[in-house]
Amino acid sequence: MGLQLDTSPGAQRHVSVLRDEAVSALAPIDGGLYIDGTFGAGGYSRAILDMADTKVVGIDRDADAVQGGASLVEDAKGRLTLVQGRFGDLKEIMHELGVECVDGVVLDVGVSSMQLDTADRGFSFRFDGPLDMRMEREGASAADLVNELAEKDLAALIRTFGEERRATQIAKAIVAERVNGRIASTAQLAKICEAVLGRNPDMIHPATRTFQALRIAVNDELGELLRALFSAEEVLAPGGRLAVVSFHSLEDRIVKTFLAERSRTTPNVSRHAPATFAAAPTFIPIIRSATPGDEEMARNPRARSARLRAAERTEAPARGASDPLAYGVPQLSALTQFMARA
C-alpha cells in the first residue's frame, strides 16, 4: 500500500503534473536519497517513496505546505524529511542536514493549486482577497509593487515577467486608479486589467499575465529557479538525475538554456562573455522535452502548458554560478532596488 497524503480539500486539489514521467526520469533506487525541491502537496515525494526503498528531503517555501505534509512524514516512518526553505538554497539545506550528495532532484516550478485556491493568499483573480502573493508571507507584497513602483517600472515588470504586450496601458491605468486610494485586493486589480484589455470568453482572463508578472517578481521565481539549477549541479552525485517541470516560457527557457549549456561539448559562444574552450559537460540530456498527454490535460487543466526536461549528472566538476542574463533571467534594476529596501 502506498503512502498516504494529507486528505484536506486544499491538498486534494493539487495534482502533480507529469509526475510519473518526472519520477521515472529520476529512476529511484533502493537506498537512494532524493530532493523534492517543490514539495507542495507531496505528490512527487510520495511517488519517489513508493517506487523504491528511498529517502526524500522535501523543500517548500510555504509554511502551509510543510505543515500539510506532516501526515506523510509520519507515514513515511523516517524516510521523509520536510524543510521550510527555498529550493535555490538546496545545497545549503543539504549541508545543514549533513548530506554531501544526492541521487536525484525534482522541481515542479511555479505556484501550487493550494496557493491559487486560497483566497487570502492573493495569488488568483478568481477569488477576491488581499493582493499579497508572497509564498513566505514576508517582504514586499504584490500590493506594495502595484502601489509604489513608478509607472514606467511597473510597465517594465508586467511586460518582462508577464509577457504582456499592453503592459504600458495597464501600468498607466493602475497609476490612475491608485490616485483614488491604495489598490489592495485581487478583484480591484483584475477589474483594472479587464477595463484595459476587455473580456473575451474564448481567451485567457485579461488579468492572467499581470498576476503572473507580479507573482514572479514578488517571489523572485526566475532567480530562484536558476539558483536551484546551479545548486542541483553541486549536490548531484555522478549518475544522479535532475528533472524539472515548468509551466511557462520564461521558466522553460531558463531550464532549456542551462541544460543545453551544461551538456555542450563545443566552445561557448555568448554575447555576454568571450568565447571559451568547452568545459567537460556536467549533464547528459535524458528528456529534452516532454509534454502531458491528452488524458492528463483533460483531467488536469493546469497541465496544459507544462513541459518536462531531465538530465543525468556526469563526473565532471560543477561549474558554479554565472551571469543570470546568460540563462534568460531578466534583471530589472528598479525592481531589485525596491525589493532590497522592502
From TrEMBL:
Gene3D superfamilies: Putative methyltransferase TM0872, insert domain, Vaccinia Virus protein VP39. Residues 290-323 are annotated as: Disordered. It holds the Pfam family Methyltransf_5. One of its GO terms (cellular component) is cytoplasm. Belongs to the methyltransferase superfamily. RsmH family. This is Ribosomal RNA small subunit methyltransferase H. One of its GO terms (molecular function) is rRNA (cytosine-N4-)-methyltransferase activity. S-adenosyl-L-methionine binds at G42, G43, Y44, D60, F87, D108, Q115. It is an enzyme of class 2 (transferase). HAMAP family: 16SrRNA_methyltr_H. It comes from Terrihabitans soli. Keywords: Cytoplasm, Methyltransferase, rRNA processing, S-adenosyl-L-methionine, Transferase. Specifically methylates the N4 position of cytidine in position 1402 (C1402) of 16S rRNA. One of its GO terms (biological process) is rRNA base methylation. Its EC number is 2.1.1.199. It is found in: Cytoplasm. It catalyses: cytidine(1402) in 16S rRNA + S-adenosyl-L-methionine = N(4)-methylcytidine(1402) in 16S rRNA + S-adenosyl-L-homocysteine + H(+).
